[in-house]
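Re: that chain you flagged

S.,

Sorry for the slow reply, it's been a week of failed gels. I finally had a moment to sit down with the sequence you sent. For the record, here it is as I used it:
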Amino acid sequence: MAEPPAQIDALLPVEIARRAEEIGIKKAHLDWASMFTLAVLAGAFVAVGAIFSTIAATGLADGLPYGVTRILSGLVFCLGLILIVLAGAELFTGNTLIVMAWASRKVTTAAMLRNWLIVYAGNLVGSVATAALVFLAGQHTFGGGLVGHTALAIANAKVNLDFVQAVALGILCNGLVCLAVWLTIGARTTTDKILAIVFPITAFSASGFEHSIANMYFITAGLLIKQFDPDFAARTASAANLDLSNLTVAGFWSNLIPVTLGNIIGGVVLVAAVYWFVYLRPANRS
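Prediction finished late last night. Pasting the structure tokens below so you have them in one place:
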């Protein structure tokens, strides 16, 4: 008997919902060592995208309109999620979709929170370690110091957001990140997955929305320059009229806490809960 032809079309939304639930179950039950290791990789991958984005934004504002600069830096930032999805890694913000399996009572609250905590910690380690390596490489001095200027400006802008604004920007960000992950679940090929990632991630980055894991890199990069190359930071701050007084470890957490909260709300409420309600709640489950 001939085998049925392989399906090449993308999954339908209801099929994506079922597949997302299955993936959530597997993620929640990974052993902690594998989970943490993959989370460190994800933090490093996001940091690589952030590095690429910083380079793309350096010097562009002087010659291109603001919107074009933002789109270009957002486009290259996509590298982070492309690496995570295709190479394999565990990203806290994408893992908010585990709520779909939790809502179906296939994952316990303890298992879901365990995943989030371990993955968040691993993402932090990967992001901060990458920022430290980039600083040791002296990348902030490249381009006559323009790269460091951009890195400081990005970090400083983030630590000066107020709490409510940071939460709102975090919600908007992770709605788009989880939609990108959602689309990759339905994709069949490497090319499909990359294209599914590009537009939502470019949109969130170009729009200035806030991603907690990316901020672990961006703010740490600025902190390292300020702390360990103070002369460079002082010259840059003076030339660019930057007040770096809030670029501190306390400023790091004052950004990360509300952005993380917003990311959770965005992923859980705007994506996971909506699609679970439409496709997976008992009344609609076939």
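What I noticed first: The longest helix spans residues 249-280.

Talk soon,
D.
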